[in-house]
User: What shape does this take?
Amino acid sequence: MTNKIFTALLLLLVAATAYSQVTERAISRAVLPLPEELRAEAGVYTYDESGTRQNLRNGTNAVECKIKDQNNHTLCFAKSTAARRDYSAKLAASGLEGEDLQAAEAQAEASGLIKPVPPGAMIYRLDESDGGMRLLWVVMLPNTSSAELAVSPAGRFTSAVKGMGTPWMMREGTSSAHIMMPINGTDLSNQGGAEAALNTRDIHPFIRATLPLPRDLRRATTVVAYDPDSGKREVLRQGSNGIVCISRDEETGFTRCSHEKNLAELDLRMTLQAEGESDEAIAAAVQAAADAGDIPRRRFGEFLYRLYEGEEDRLKLLWVIRLPGVTAVETGMPTLADRDNLSVGKGTPWLMREGTEQAHLMIPVNGTELSNFY
Assistant: This one.
C-alpha cells in the first residue's frame, strides 16, 4: 500500500512538473510580441470554451498577453482594455462573430456596459502562419480619419511581408480606427527589406522634400522653405492633400513633413529661430501661443515625419504620432528607446514625455530604402 501511495504521489509530481514546464513555455511564447522591456512583468491569460478568463500569470505592468490562438496569432494588449475583451470573449463563446460581434460590442459601449477603447491603446501581434505579416503593433485611435491626422489609408501588407512595410490607418472614422505598424528589422519580423539605400543627392528638390512620407502621399504635398535669416516662409510647390513638407535643411540634414495646420506653429518657430532665440524660449513661446489660441493645439493622433541625411550612427527615417496626455499605464506603450538598435535598423517604437502635452510615440521606420541599414 505504501508503495502504491508513493507511486501515485510520484506520478502526480511528474504530471505537475510537466504541466508547469508546458505552462512556462506557453508564457514565454505569449510575451514575444512585446518589446523586451515589457515581457518579464506582463500578465498571460487565455479563455476557456465558455469565454471565461484563465490567468496563467498575473503580471505587474500595464500589458497582458493571450496565448497563441487557432490562427497562429499571439496577441498582447493594454490592461486597460481587459474588461472589454473579457466581455467580447463571452459574446464570441455564445456564437457571435464578425459584424454581429462588433455590433454587440458597440451596443454594450453605448449603454455604458463596457468602456470605450482608450485613445492610444496598444495591441501587439505575432503571426506565425505562412505568408503572414509576422510582427505587428497597433495603435488605437477611435473616431479619427487619415486626412485629419496626415496619415496614409493605403495598406502596406505586400511590403510588410517583404520586411519593408510602413504604418497606415484602417477603419478610419469608426470607433475601431487604428494605425497598423509593421515592425521591421527584428529577429521576429518578416525578413527582407530594401536591398540598398536610395541615393537622394540627384533627386529634384521638390521630390526630395517629400521623401519622409509614404509614397502615396508625396505627389500632392505642399513644399515650403524658410529663409534662415528672416524666418519668412516661401511656398515652392502648392499641394492639395493637407500635408506640408519643409525642404531639406542643409545645415542640420533634416527634412520634415506634417499636417498643414501646423504652418502657424512652424512660422512662429522659424521666426524666433531666425531671431536667435534658444530652444527653451521657442518652446515656451509656442506653448503660450497655443494657450492663447493664436496657433492650433496639437491634434491627438497626428503624424509627423522626419528624414535625417547625415551621420551614419543616427536614426534616419522617423515617424511620430502626437499623443498629448497619454501614459504608458493607460495605453500599454513602452517608454524605453532601444538605442543600441536604432542606428542599425532594428529599433522599435517607444513613448516619450508621457503624461504631458508633448507626449508622442516615436516610430523608427526600418527596412525601407531610406532607413538605417544593418
Q: What stands out?
A: The mean pLDDT is 92.
